[in-house]
Amino acid sequence: MTDLPLKSIIEAALFAAGKPLTIDHFIAIFAETSQPERSVVRTVLRELREEYAERGIELVEVASGYRFQTKQNLTPWLKGLQPERSPRYSRALLETLAIIAYRQPITRGEIENIRGISVSSDIIRKLHDYKWIRVLAHRDTPGKPALYGTSREFLNYFNLKNLNGLPPLTELMANAQEELFETEEKKEEEINPKN
Amino acid sequence: MTDLPLKSIIEAALFAAGKPLTIDHFIAIFAETSQPERSVVRTVLRELREEYAERGIELVEVASGYRFQTKQNLTPWLKGLQPERSPRYSRALLETLAIIAYRQPITRGEIENIRGISVSSDIIRKLHDYKWIRVLAHRDTPGKPALYGTSREFLNYFNLKNLNGLPPLTELMANAQEELFETEEKKEEEINPKN
Amino acid sequence: MNSNSSTISPPLNPHRWGGSTPSQREGARGRVPSVIVQGTELETLPTDLYIPPDALQVFLEGFEGPLDLLLYLIQHQNLDILNIPIAEVTQQYLKYVDIMQEMDLDLAAEYLAIAAMLMEIKSRLLLPTANESKDSEDPRAKLVQQLREYAQYKQAAQDLDNLPRLERDILPVSVEQHEIPKEIILPQITWSALLEAMRDVMERANLFTSHHIMSEPLSVRERMSFILERLTESKTINFIDCFTLEEGRGGVVVTLLALLELTKESLVQIVQPKPYEMIQVISS
User: Fold this and answer.
1) How many distinct structural domains can be found in chain A?
2) Which residue from B minimizes the CA distance to C197?
3) What is the ipTM of this complex?
């Protein structure tokens, strides 16, 4: 057991920050002469995670660091407290986002090749507005098209630590209809125990 | 000890609500057939208060209900979490600000119509925080939406004496590619000393 | 596909399917939309078209492009994606494209491009190849490759949508802080960035319908804000007091226009309680 003040400070910081915090953030809280070791911070975070395991909220690590969030299975009860309904996203937007996530860095033209149809500027703008994608560079071909990739915010939003957390791409073979359903069900099972 | 789900839900609700919650709020979370007694809710709240007594945050009752807050004695450490660099801003924020400047008084819905995309509460809040916009009145339509306008601080920041200092839209719009650059350069000179 | 499969001719009234509101669509559920085939209205839909019995338009608009449509045709008939019966699929695909055109749906050029590709493949398959052994590459290969890749990402999009995510499945937590004096740091925004943003918005807004984007001079809008602000301080202002004579004729006109605009938008009312009394401006 580490000493209490350090743990309380880290705990309070997580609650007060309003955004995920990294280990560097926690260390920077303290004056230079009294900064804790990284390993100590890690231990505190592990203890906190265990202490909250049975509570209504949980400590998780996402791309930008550690954050407290509500447990997924309680969300149905909490919906009524939120003034705004959670947005739904169009298939066109999700497909574009998925292609960028799995194939980054990628140009708009390449996305269009995969989807077989043009990608509206509106979708690209929305993805920018949500801060889910960013321009990584420009390809050195005529027109210097932008190369898109996903951002930390994208991972944070989808509760992921890094891109490896994305569901693996499934290779679709013949007569995919039934297979498709099977895969979905399996996916669901894989995900649920986590919550 | 009351059963866990009820306590977890009340706990998560306190964390997710972003505002103090009353006992009525807690009861309203549940379907009519399964609403807990007020006394049960009170017991849960008392238990939660005890369980958090030794932690970095505490459950308190304020005028408008119950809420979690950071412990007072930790405040000195949490100051370090405040950002020091000037914050990043999004395209969406710029566009929203520009529309408010040109079209005030204007409601959020009207801004959304012009942008063709929704405007997040976050953006409106930020613009308020910067004191660049203010609520002038409320439109007398269902929902009484707020009418936004720009503030004196906005004019100061952009070094304008009044809104007439903004170039007229017709100028911005028509032919204006070159004109714009000229105007920009001039304006940039005027403004830069401030930044 | 059997030889007597009907050709779909344009519905007598193409608007029958068009412009329905969501609630109307809801109501149409379960009813069979009429399809006119060779002059006769069909009671039931041709089975080879696989049109579900609810709103056809919604259904057709639901495709995310030609590959999505092709994939649907193949998967719904349990056809082998690796060995597509091109003649059959092409015929069905063209029927859908025809219907979309006849219904005046916004048909992206890409649909026609894929139609041309299908026909080309079909004709190449029909041609007897002289040197079959040498040039044996299946003309379908490229299409199959494209379809498989698209199917993969279509699935990936669904998987992504199923991930637990903020707002819908997880909520961020926040607690009140003990009054840390909140220091607001302003972002550094340049003048040109703001103007550029506005120009973009306007260019876009022009694409959206006929938003009467902004013709009145800015000073009027500013004066509107000014008057509203004064009305938050006192519920009523004398009409006369709205004007600043020092501003001269131009200023008076601007104020008058602002008052009229505010009245038009029902934000203020201009009233005269009794004859000969002062005219007053009150907030509505």
Assistant:
1) 2
2) B95
3) 0.68
